[in-house]
Amino acid sequence: MCQVFAGKDPERYASTTRRLRLNGQSTSIRLENAFWEVIDKISENDGVTTPTFISKLHAEVLEQRGEPDNFTSLLRCACLKFVEIRAAGGPAVIAAE
C-alpha cells in the first residue's frame, strides 16, 4: 500500500516559493508543487489568476476570523477541501458554504 505514496515523483513534493502581494504587502509563500498544482486549478476554475485567488482568500479570512496563524497551512487545507468536493462530484467553481 505504501508504494502508492512512496513511489511518487519527487518533483511532486519538492517545494517552490512564489512571490505575491497580500493586502498590498509583498510576501512569499512556499508550498509543495502538488499543492501549487491544485491552487492553480482552483484559480483557473474560478477564472482568476493564482495571486488573485490567494489574495481574495486571505482577505476573506481576515474579514471573517482575523489574521490566520498559519496561512500556508490554510492553503493546504483549502486544496484538500477542493479535492474532496471534486471527488464527491461537486461543482468546478466553489461557492461559499
Task: Provide a descriptive summary of the structure in words.
This protein is an alpha+beta fold and 97 residues long. It has one domain: Ribbon-helix-helix fold, CATH 1.10.3990.20. Helix content is 57%, strand content 16%. The chain contains five helices and two strands, in the order H-H-E-E-H-H-H. It has a two-stranded antiparallel ribbon with strand order 1-2. Strand 1 and strand 2 form a beta hairpin. Helix 3 packs across helix 4. It is globular and about 45 Å long. It starts with a helix and ends in a 10-residue tail after the last helix. The mean pLDDT is 90. Pfam families: RHH_4. InterPro entries: RHH_dom, RHH_sf. One of its GO terms (molecular function) is DNA binding. Keywords: DNA-binding. It comes from Yoonia sediminilitoris.
- Helix run count: 5
Amino- and carboxy-terminal Cα gap: 34 Å
Average pLDDT level: 90
H and E string: HHEEHHH
Question: What is the CATH architecture assignment?
Answer: Orthogonal Bundle
Shape: globular
InterPro entries: RHH_dom, RHH_sf
Keywords: DNA-binding
GO molecular function: DNA binding
Organism: Yoonia sediminilitoris
Any descriptors?
Ribbon-helix-helix fold, globular, Putative DNA-binding ribbon-helix-helix protein, 57% helix, 5 helices, DNA-binding, RHH_dom, two-stranded antiparallel sheet, single chain, 97 residues, alpha+beta, DNA binding
Q: How are the SSEs ordered, and which strands pair?
A:
Elements: H1 3-6, H2 10-13, E1 15-22, E2 25-32, H3 33-46, H4 50-65, H5 71-87
Antiparallel strand pairs: 1-2
